[in-house]
Amino acid sequence: MTSAITVSVLMTLIAASTPLLLAALGELVAEKAGVLNLGVEGMMLCGAVAGFAVAFSSGSIVLGLAAAALAGMAAAMIFGVLALSLGANQVATGLALTIFGTGASSLIGAGFVGRTVERLGPIFPAALSEHPVLRLVFGQDILVYLSLALVACVAYFLRRTRAGLILRAVGENDASAHAIGYPVIAIRYAAVAFGGALAGLGGAYFSLALTPMWADRLTAGRGWIALALVVFSAWKPGRLLLGAYLFGAVMTLELQAKAAGVNWLAPEVLAMAPYLATIAVLTMMSLGRRTGRLDAPACLGKPFSAP
Amino acid sequence: MLEWRRRREPSMAMLWLSPLIAIGLTMLAGMLVFTAMGYDGFHAVGSIFVTPFVESQRWADIGVKAAPLVMIALGLAIGFRANVWNIGAEGQYVMGAVAGTGVALLTYDMTGWWILPAMALAGILGGMAWAAIPALLRVKLQVSEILTSLMLTYVAVQLLYYLVRGPWKDPGGFNFPQTRMFTADQTLPAVMEGSLVHIGIPAALVIAVVAWLLMEKTTAGYAVKVVGLAPAAARHGGFSAARTTWATMLLGGGLAGLAGLFEAAGPFGQLTPQFPVGYGFTAIIVAFLGRLNPLGIVFGGIVLAGTYVGGEIAQSTVRLPQAATGLFQAMLLFILLATDVLVKWRLVRKRRAA
């Protein structure tokens, strides 16, 4: 491969990894607080359609991104009310959220199918962002840099700050955290809201950056892969970054196969690859684990009601 | 002032009333949402929730759509009871249709009464095989069946695309991505001559009754419930969680596979890329609306099938987009989960301490 092709394959890989990284990082924080929100795919679709609709009608991509984060957060709040306040089963509520996001985005997006918006572009001046090699570093859009910065921020927050310690305590032992006087439900709401905002941005990455055109169900199950990535990461932000980029590589297999001159594989087989890889990775994680619980937060998925 | 009090025991009355309350509230919420979106909300909800049930010429269509929903939901609900979260029924449904279609293509130039049963058997086995993968991974390696069963749905759909665009493409089909039409011996017979009602509909009802007997009257059904409610007690009582996982996953996969085959050999009559319509996901709503009870699921299946039929009516009467049906179904599940709070809690008037 020539360096121009290598650079362009890497650019595509980064673009494919970014929405996964955003959504998975948000879910990681929610799960660290003990909440299993299976609605990532639904929140991504809400963000994708809200971002597109606002960017399309206002002409401002920044407003679109803000709307995406807010829509993801609003969807997460529905989950919060049902699963956190009313104590509904988290698995059922998360599934409901995904079905809801799919329906809502199809309905709102019905009028936008095939419409286009201006693509989310690089933030650095053209001299840097269009340089044949340096564009790898300087040619990215704001969400790529944001996602990488957030990995560092979340890692620092969880490991080094008092608030992060409290959040982890809520996820590891909600009853004790409550007994010490921490507002378990409020902290979980905050964590779920953060997860929703990042999932919304991850979804908007599809509709505003990857293909700046509306298509129904354009996230194609990436929200579920993000959930698997959190397991893969063993709830550690650094490993999550690695996992997201590995999966980005698998998802761009089709393009890479073309670049490498492989054309005997059916496109459908390449389209299956990310999902098969997810199963393979989850299996290997289980084979390789030493402890019984895969390092999951102890209260993950369990409802909490103050005694 | 009112306040929430936890009931000493879950209310059985509320357990069965909350789906009805949820349906009522969903109709109200639907009116508001669709009106806010600029449609005629009142008539939209009427078209979706009332018209299909009052116009008798729609009943056959409701039955056709309810049959797969009920069959899939029965299998899922038994799993959910045992805390086995198979959410990849859509993939098992597709694989059942794929396996059955494989038999149909092999027997294309044959005749005989045995062809359709062979296709049905292949459909069941296809769905079971697809469900066996998450079952194996969960039992042997504790891999979450939620994620694996869902991932396999995407794989199944891609496999379907590959087959209908490639090796299984109808040679006489003007290059359209679809298989041959099934022959008369490969198609589900109609219950009444010239009607849409195929034998899959009575079959679904019979399976529901059998599932009810299984869950309520047998030790196996009891084991499923104990494993789900009290895993520790189940171990103590000698009920194996691994065996329950296997049994419920295979049952769910088999029923979804059979439903897929019925759909392929019934309404579709061939395989096309449009085959996966999301019944496997809607069946999750059916299972919850039916309180994970086989007879309740028949009711839930009819309601959700009605929303599909009604959604089509609303497309022509108030020009509501087809996607509104999905949103409506999701709202129903949300509101149901919310009204379920009434099962464990009750509203009482707050007493002031003197």
Description:
The complex is a heterodimer of chains A (307) and B (354). With 307 residues, chain A is mainly α. Chain A has a single domain, classed as ABC transporter involved in vitamin B12 uptake, BtuC (Orthogonal Bundle), CATH 1.10.3470. Helices cover 72% and strands 0% of the residues of chain A. Chain A contains 14 helices and no strands. Chain A has helices spanning 3-32, 40-58, 61-85, 90-109, 126-129, 135-138, 142-160, 162-172, 174-180, 184-210, 222-232, 237-251, 253-259, 267-288. Chain B is mainly alpha-helical and 354 residues long. Chain B has a single domain (2-349), classed as ABC transporter involved in vitamin B12 uptake, BtuC (Orthogonal Bundle), CATH 1.10.3470. Chain B is 69% helix and 3% strand. Chain B has 15 helices and 2 strands. Chain B has helices at residues 12-36, 41-49, 51-54, 59-81, 89-106, 115-141, 145-165, 200-217, 219-229, 231-236, 241-268, 279-289, 294-317, 323-339, 341-344, and strands at 2-6, 345-349. Chain B has a two-stranded antiparallel ribbon. In chain B, helix 2 (41-49) packs across helix 13, helix 5 packs parallel to helix 7 (145-165) and helix 12 packs across helix 13 (294-317). Chain B starts with a strand and ends in a 5-residue tail after the last strand. The mean pLDDT of chain B is 91. At the A-B interface, helix 3, helix 4, helix 11 and helix 14 of A face helix 6, helix 7, helix 12 and helix 14 of B.
